[in-house]
Amino acid sequence: MLNRTFFDVFGKPLKSKSKNHLVNLSILFTLYFGKHFEKKMKLWRVVIVTGMIIFMLGIIFHLQGQAIVGPESSFMYANPQWISYGTQIAIVGIIITGISILIKFKKKL
């Protein structure tokens, strides 16, 4: 059983009608750690790096689907589905990186 003070966030008790403990913990994580990370580190850098990694993985998957990169024993090698999957993953990485950069510049203004 979790202690009631564990759910106190910024001196205010967490009011959640959910009996699911995972929901309560996710609310706690969002409220407490979100504020903590904003104060302690630049979260936009982490998001930019994550977006760039996702972009690079998408490019690698795309090239594996075209049989340019990777071992021939891979299920992605020369698989036309992975050409489109890789492109979609790369686009998601670009979107994540772009949104993070926009948020960074918006906070500066």
Explain this structure:
The chain has 109 residues and is mostly helical. The protein folds into 2 domains: 4-40, no CATH class; 43-108. 66% of the residues lie in helices and 4% in strands. It has 3 helices and 2 strands; from the N terminus they run ββααα. It has helices at residues 21-40, 43-65, 80-108, and strands at 8-9, 12-13. The protein has a two-stranded antiparallel ribbon. Helix 2 packs antiparallel against helix 3. The N and C termini lie far apart (45 Å). The relative contact order is 0.12.
Condensed summary:
This protein is mainly alpha-helical. It has helices at residues 21-40, 43-65, 80-108; strands at 8-9, 12-13.
Topology:
Blueprint: E1 8-9, E2 12-13, H1 21-40, H2 43-65, H3 80-108
Antiparallel strand pairs: 1-2
Helix pairs in contact: 2-3
Termini separation comes to 45 Å
| Contiguous uncertain segments of 5+ residues | 1-7
Q: Given the helix and strand composition, which structural class is it?
A: mainly alpha
Radius of gyration: 20 Å
Number of strands: 2
Please give the share of residues in helix.
55-70%
Q: Summarize the main sheet.
A: 2 strands, antiparallel
Q: Per DSSP, what share of the residues sits in E-state strands of 2 or more residues?
A: under 5%
Number of helices: 3
The rough form would be described as elongated
Order of helices and strands: EEHHH
With strands numbered from the N-terminus, the spatial order across the biggest sheet is 1-2
Look at the structure and give the mean pLDDT.
Answer: 77
Count of domains: 2
